[in-house]
Amino acid sequence: MKIEVNSLDNKKIKDIDLDKQIFGLELKEEIIYRMVRYQLAKRRSGNHKTKGISEISGTTKKPFKQKGTGNARQGSKRSPQMRGGAVIFGPQVRSHAHKLPKQIKKLALKMAISKKVKDGKFRIINELKMSKPKTNLFRSKLAGLKLDSVLFIDGKDIDNNFLLASKNVPKIDILPVAGINVYDILKRDYLVLSENALNGIKERFKE
Fold first, then answer.
1. Those residues with Cβ within 8 angstroms of residue 133's Cβ, 6 or more apart along the chain or in another chain
2. CA quadruple 95, 98, 103, 104: dihedral positive or negative?
């Protein structure tokens, strides 16, 4: 399958062939779902917590005598039924991360990229570099490419001018090829790779 390689000025440079084993897979929603769930679970801080009875400050003295008051017997003001008391079986600090097979992770990433290719929302730019870190210049480049919501993927190193120029533009994400992931691909309408990123992806999936 052939695709154009353009410049940031939207001028055609050449055509290249894409590997169908990476860029031409059929989407399976259950695979994508498992990967997105894995990513979002891993991002959760898990710092929600309630206090158990041993952590509540207060006296250990009985609130009132056992008999003769007409009230239900009580042993502590720290009990869960008392105002300001403990919480039973409440949430505790923990990790929400769970395991996912490596093959599922690889397959999900291939499918997410393939979906963008199939939907016509995939571009290859020869290099993601700018002469000046100017937001207006960056916006003009986007307008020329007819892009709005984009995830840019570059090689190992991201051009600093390109990064700075894009910082104040909404719906624009930029990642090095090592950081490419399913959730961020699906989050934006378009996926744009540099040639360095394309080579990095090929190396990543090389058998």
1. 160, 161, 162, 163, 164, 165
2. negative
State the Cα–Cα distance between residues 70 and 73, nearest whole angstrom. Answer: 9
Token pair belonging to 114? 């393939």
pTM (2 d.p.):
0.84
Give me the residue label for tokens 């062939």: 17
Question: Which residue has 């105002």 as its token pair?
Answer: 83
Beta bridge partners of 68: none
| 22 lies in the same domain as 38 | yes
Tell me: do 135 and 174 sit in the same domain.
Answer: yes
Q: What is the pLDDT of residues 100-134, one digit of tens each?
A: 999 999 999 999 999 999 999 999 999 999 999 99
Q: Domain ends where: 66, 90, 114?
A: 90
Looking up residue 195, the CATH number of its domain turns out to be 3.40.1370.10
